[in-house]
Design a protein that fits this description.
It contains three helices and three strands, in the order αβββαα. It is an alpha+beta fold. The protein folds into two domains: 56 residues, no CATH class; 68 residues. A three-stranded mixed beta sheet has the order 1-3-2, sandwiched between helices. The termini are far apart.
Length: 147
């Protein structure tokens, strides 16, 4: 996040008394390459999640759950932090796998489009060759018939 955005976000969080923020973009290309579809972190202004709109509900639920964990820690309530972190890890790993699968699907679609285009070009070449062959046969056949 650029410093100006970070400053604005921190002021907005402080004004509203918020400790978490979610940055949402329509597509992953709106986030830095190293972020991908999902990233999270903590700054002086609080915790954040950056994601695509496809993951917005997950980001909201994840942020709320992490807020509850933070409150439980602050209240010194007994919570199984190991189990919670294991589930958070599962979520992070699954989101990385989903992003990877989506990248692979995009690659497949791009390759498929290229294959389809090449097949269409070859079909056009075949039809052109057939047309020329038929013209040659027609020209040769009409001179034979005339003789």
């Amino acid at each position: 996040m650029c410093p100006a955005t970070r400053g604005n976000a921190t002021r907005a969080l402080n004004t509203r008394g918020a400790g978490r923020r979610i940055y949402v973009v329509r597509e992953a290309c709106g986030l830095a390459k190293e972020i991908g579809d999902w990233s999270e972190g903590t700054t002086a202004g609080g915790s954040w999640v950056a994601t695509t709109d496809e993951n917005l509900m997950t980001a909201i639920r994840f942020s709320l759950a992490m807020e509850q964990v933070d409150r439980a820690k602050a209240a010194r309530r007994t919570v199984d932090l190991g189990a919670i972190e294991a589930q958070a890890g599962r979520i992070r790993d699954a989101l990385k796998r989903v992003a990877n699968l989506q990248r692979m699907a995009t690659t497949i679609r791009t390759s498929s489009d290229g294959i389809t285009s090449e097949a269409n070009d070859l079909r056009a070449d075949v039809l052109d060759a057939l047309r020329m062959m038929e013209e040659a046969i027609g020209a040769g056949g009409s001179s034979s018939e005339a003789a």
